[in-house]
Amino acid sequence: MKLGFRGKIYLGFFSLLLIQGLVIFFWVSHVVKGSMLEELKNRGISIGISLSARMVEPILVMDFLRMKVLVDETVQLGDDIFYTFVLDEEENPLIHTFKHGFPVELKMANTVLNNQKGSIQLLDIGGQFIYDYAIPVFINDNRLGTLRLGLFRTRAEKAVNKIIISVVVTIILAILIAGFVGSLLLNPVTKSIKKLHDSSEQALRGNLDVRAAPMLKKNCWEIMQCHQKECPAYKNFHHRCWYLAGTLCPDCIERKYAKKIDSCQQCQIYKQCSGDEIQSLAESFDAMTLSLKGNLSDLKNAESILNEQKALLQMILDAIPDFISLQDQEGRYVSVNRAFCEMLNKNKEDIVGRGNDDLFSGNQAELYNQEDKSILETGTPLVKENRVPGSKGPKWLHVVKIPVSEAKDRVRGLVCSGRDITQLKAVQEQLTQAQKMESVGRLAAGVAHEINTPLGIILGYAQLLLEDVGKDGQIYEDVATIVKQIKICSKIVADLLNFSHSRESIITVFNINEAIGEVLGVVEHTFNLNHVMVKHEYHKESLLMKGDKEKLKQVFINLLNNAFDAIEENGSICISTGPGKTENEIKISVSDTGIGIAKENISKVFEPFYTTKAPDKGTGLGLSVTFGIIKDHNGTIEVFSPPLPRKKKEQGTQFIVVLPSGLNMKKGELNG
Amino acid sequence: MKYGWMILLCFLLFPGCGENESAIKVDLTIKEQVIFKEEPGVITYAYLPQYSHTISHTRHHSLIQYLRKETGLNIKQIFPDTFDEHMKMVGQKKIDISFSNPAVYVKIAHRYGAKAFARIVEMTGKDKFRGQIICRTDNSSIQSLSDCRHKRWIAVDSTSAGGYLYPLGHFMDHGITKMDFKEIAFAPGPGGKQEKVILSVYAGKYDIGTIREGSLDVVADRIDINKIRIISMSDSYPGWMYAARKNLDKKIVEKLKKAFEKLDFNRKDHREILEAADFIKVIASVDSDFDSVRQLAARVGISLDE
User: How many Å lie between the alpha carbon of B31 and the closest alpha carbon of chain A?
Assistant: First the structure.
């Protein structure tokens, strides 16, 4: 069983008292015994010397009666005096106190020389010890005889034992009294310490509403006759005013304990109310828990704000589409945002704490490590565009790496920010292509304009020749071929002119269904000859729109021709019209059962001069022109291969054109 | 360290261990009866106990040793307690040689036939001496001898010469009789009578005291003798003397006389003996030398038979 503080104090206290008692007992017994024996010896010597002096005259006069009286009186002086006798100069006994004769052996048992004051000899008379004293009897320098005295040592020892018993009893009583008094003094101390310990444990468990010190009896507001209820010390029965900040006494310093205690120690409240060390400890503990409670509350508030700010920051970071990361000096990722995780397709926990080697492939990791090392060493930011492989194809990233400085000349890490610029890149490419195509268009328009006239003259002359040449001859066929090719050239030129907007638009309000019908009237016969059936599903009501009818007819011709070219033989083309998602929109769908378009080529079909047809069949400008006309009408065109809804084993292509009716549009916005 | 504490504790707890006192074994059962045996052929020498036995021994021990050596006699000093006992022991032949005052001598000569054969010469060089009447210095009521009337008087002994007989004669010569005193007392107990008288006056128990000349010097080391005033001194009478008991062998007396005569104060060894005995010389004497004392006794009314 482990001893508590109280037990240890008691054990130590009683051990100390016991040891002290034992030491005192043994020392006292030793000293008392020595003193008693010494006293016994001195007593014997002094009795002997006194008797010797009184014995001089009786010896001189040989007054045996007086001698007898003297020795008998001496023996009666105390129980411890056993015998007295006197020897003459020849060592013959003159007088003695023995009743039945003189013990012969006593005579020579102890002798004393003339130059000695006396002689002491311990005699063993059989079970009892006697101190025998031999005192010479002198008159002047003449020795008359020897006085002998016998004192019991055992009786002295009995006296010693009595004293020792008294000492033992006294020591035991002293220990008991000291223990009782000690316990009276110790109880409040141990109780206070236990309460302090309990309070400390409570505080460790988080309960800071503890009271280690007892209720205060003397209070500052009573002593000072103060009535300031707003003072934190007023009616505060648990905390001394000098531990509290913001007390309102006139002499108080408005600071916390550390700053005001020196001033408070001079105050009469402190002098009257401050207790002993234990009480001060308990009171300061209470004040400490109070202060700790306040600090903890502040800390919790700060932590809450910090967490809120952290969450907010993380939310902002995660909301940013750019990926952001923070690396430490060793290149390990300390913090990343959601975009970064998505880019690497990993969880945040799988990224934080790892380096480039763990997250990227060999070459990439090595490159990034070199970059990071260079930035950390030089402190120079890095800005670059990076092409990286992605799940949906390669990606372009705009990357900025900035060193983060902790102090002067000390780089703590680096922040990396990256943005996916794949689309931007594509747009840039498209813009470049568009610019190129614009240039080409302008050139083509110029060229077409210049060539159109000579081609017309050549065609005219070729047709004249054809009229002049018999139809059966080779010349006719050749001229006919020339006319045919010239017409192809004229068409190319006309397409180029359309592409380059060289023709002026004629805006009218017309019915789409009629316009489609006109177009079908031209091409349907040709299609039927090639066993291509054309289905038309017009909207029951007229679909009026405002636009360039001719250009839109060109759109439909191009789409139907493309469908026909895709089918070649034995197929069907379906053209349908209807309203779009809103009442102001008209939706036209042209679908075929042709060979369809490969996925990789779908995005290129609207590019100028892109064609899969034979060189003598397509110029690659049809859909580009179509795209341009629809765009001019603020419409959209989408291509699906296979057509929607997608069915298994179905092939073909579907173009869906959505045009704003433009009836609510102001005039002039068409080209805007 | 642990063992150090234990050693210290043992040292503190058992400081007295090791004490051992050897004892002699004595058998008390072997006993004998004590019988005092008288020494044969002893010549007893007694000094009249005017002082304590110790002083008597001190004064005459060396002299006796000298006499023993000089005469070849086995002389031994004995110490009677009182003047009366001294006188009786002369009569009983227990004292062979008596050294006494003249007053005692005239009595033992009258009663027991003792014979004077020598007398001493005082340190003053005189063969006679006087009695002194003393009182306390601060006793203003006694300025002269006549003031002693109706006072309490302590004398040495009724047989004292200087301490009673001579002062009594002196009082009577001045018209003061025994009846004039309020009280006449004698020093009590055995021995040391001169000192007892002085101490009684000194203590104020008695108004006046009578002592022999020279006694104040004996007590000078015990009391302040300036507190004692000598009122008056008696006439001079023969000093102390040696007497032989009746029928003592004359040869012994002759040997003693010769030995006394040999004492020479000028010899260093003899001077020490004589100074201790408080006289400078011993001269031959005869009984008639003390007739003046006999006459004085008769005059004051002291019977030699009492």
Answer: 4
Contact residues, chain A, for B26 at CB < 8 Å:
103, 105-106, 109, 123-125
pLDDT at res. A242:
80
Whether B15 has its CB under 8 Å from any CB of chain A: the answer is yes
| ipTM, two decimals | 0.70
A32-79, pLDDT tens digit by residue?
Answer: 777 877 887 888 888 999 999 888 888 887 888 889 999 999 999 888
Contact A320, A339 (CB under 8 A): yes
Residue pair B215/B192 in contact by the 8 Å Cβ criterion:
no
Architecture per CATH, A5-164 = 2-Layer Sandwich (3.30)
Q: A62: which chain B residues are within 8 Å (Cβ-Cβ)?
A: 36, 78
Q: Which residues of A482-494 are buried (b: 16+ CB within 10 A; e: fewer)?
A: bbeebeebbebbb
**Chain B residues with CB-CB distance to A94 below 8 A:** 34, 36
Interchain contact, B28 vs A34, CB within 8 Å: no
CA atoms within 13 A on the CB side of A640: 14
Confirm or reject contact between B12 and chain A (CB < 8 A): yes
CA angle B51, B55, B60 (to 5 degrees): 110
C-alpha span between B254 and B251 (Å, rounded): 5
Say if the Cβ atoms of A26 and B14 lie within 8 Å.
Answer: yes
> Are the C-beta atoms of residues B178 and B185 closer than 8 Å to each other?
no
What distance in Å separates the CA atoms of residue A140 and residue A562, rounded to the nearest whole number? 175
Alpha carbon distance A624, A627 (integer Å): 5
Is pTM beyond 0.80? Reply is: no
Please name the residue ranges forming H helices in A500-606. 512-529, 549-567, 599-602
State chain A's maximal CA–CA distance in angstroms: 217
Contacts of residue B86 in chain A, CB cutoff 8 Å? Answer: none
Cβ within 8 Å of residue A282, ≥6 positions away: A192, A195, A196, A199, A212, A213, A214
Q: How far is A258 from chain B, CA to nearest CA, in Å?
A: 44
What is the rounded distance in angstroms from the CA atom of residue A213 to the CA atom of residue B38?
Answer: 100
In CATH, which of 3.40.190.10, 3.20.20.70, 3.40.50.720, 3.30.9.10 is domain B133-235?
3.40.190.10
Alpha carbon of A105: minimum distance to chain B alpha carbons (Å): 6
Whether domain A504-672 has CATH 3.40.50.150: the reply is no
Structure tokens at B42: 């002893």
Cis omega before residue A642 (within 30°)? yes
CB-based contact, B57 to chain A, within 8 Å: yes
Of the candidates A57, A60, A102, which has its C-beta nearest B32's C-beta?
Answer: A102
Half-sphere exposure of A509 (CA within 13 A, CB side): 10
User: What are the tokens at B270?
Assistant: 């003899």
Predicted confidence band of residue A281 (pLDDT cuts 50, 70, 90)? confident
Q: Give how far B276 is from chain A: nearest CA, Å.
A: 12
CATH number of B42-127+239-300: 3.40.190.10
| A102/B16 touch (CB, cutoff 8 Å), yes or no | no
Same fold, A5-164 and A320-420: yes
